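Record passed on here:
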Amino acid sequence: MSDRQNTIVCSFDPRSTRITAFNILEWIHENLQLTRDEVRVIQVDGSRRRVYIKFTNEDRMQEVL
């Protein structure tokens, strides 16, 4: 069983071109305006075009949502 507390899932268009890890980091910084201290883990599911972002703080996650 996986622990998904303080985690949001960002889904991208499956028809879009392949995104790189650098593209994802840029997107998180520019669009979500998150810092390194606010993010615990970033997991990419390339085949499903999903990015899981686990936060260090529940309050910040709620602000982003």
About this structure: The chain is about 30% helix and 30% strand. The chain has a mean pLDDT of 89. The first strand starts at residue 7 and ends at 11.
